[in-house]
Amino acid sequence: MSAITLDAFRQRVHDWLAAEAPARGWLRDESRSASAVRPKAGDADAITRYLARARECQEALYDVGFAGISWPTEYGGQGLTNREQVVFNEESQDYDLPLIPYTIGLGMCGPTVLAVGTDAQKERHIRPMLRGEEIWCQMFSEPGAGSDVAGLSTRAERDDDGWRINGQKVWTSGAHYCKWGMLLARTNVDVPKHRGLTMFIVDMEAPGVTVRPLRQMNGSSGFNEVFFDDLIVPADAVLGAVDDGWRTSLVTLMNERVAIGAGRPTGEIPTAAALAELATRRGLASDGDLADSIADVYVRERVLGLLSNRINAAILQDKAPGPEGSVAKLVATDLARRAAALAVQIAGPAAQAWSADDPSGDHWAAVLLMTPGLSIAGGTDEIMRNILGERVLGLPKEPRLDTGPFANRS
Fold first, then answer.
1. Where are the alpha helices (DSSP H) in 21-163?
2. Largest CB tally within 10 Å, which of 21, 161, 184, 358?
3. Would the pLDDT of 214 be above 60?
């Protein structure tokens, strides 16, 4: 695509966002509480409004041609290139598009279905995903296999023409409102743990699936535990190849880390500019130490931006996500923790006590309580450092004692 055409696409994105996003209340600086971004547990009405707002935004993007920008046209995408997607991402930085419920589906599940799914799976799932009609989740972690994803024990056994699944997953984001999920299960216990896994597409509303919200310390329930009791899925629910689920899961995990690291921080995390504005409102603009801390956040934002540019450059060359996603994720989560802690320091007592009738009074406290989870989502900081040590620095791998058949593990 020529530079002129790309510039024209940028202008089109810019004009549409400038006209539509403010009119629909999608400005980032819109006054709202943290609970309006992620509804608190048990507030069914708030969750309904939350999902309706997200679907309105996703439908609008699809209708105007900004959903699935680089995805194939035969499945509802726009058939453009990653360059146009990067342009859209850059132009939308100044707008708080309420798309959190679709992050996993569009950033991780969709790319996996496109990469390894059958034509029938792509035809059935991609277009509804892009239109915002169906929300997806991913189910990897288990109570006994958190960071060790390949150590999971949820079993999928052949049953007539399909599979019978039993087990439990945990920390599943959005499972309580999802229609579909990607489930990693064990299909072979007679081989080493990485070789006996299979990925499945699961109907979250099917008999045998039970979703229970996990209440977090910030009062919300974005995560869930999911139980499978004799869940029957058809043979065509296999995503990728049987017993090759580890390879499929890596496609998902690499996209997840890139989405977390290369994407802009969630609107709940304050930027250096927002911190400076908060400090000014609190009468602390002349505090030299505070100014140094805000400058440190700004420098880290710039570093993350440069890492994002590097990842985008690789994407534009059609390279698969690599270890750079782990670097960006580490930087992004560290930045979030520092920014949240500094915001609470600046806010002072207002971050610890507020009026019950103030809809945004809990904002800074909720942000501080939310950030620790970012160091776990998509792989812990320790896992990211192991990946970088082994794959980038060439350090020896940690000793492993579980290389035999999974059934023989102690």
1. 34-37, 44-64, 82-91, 103-104, 110-116, 119-131
2. 184
3. yes
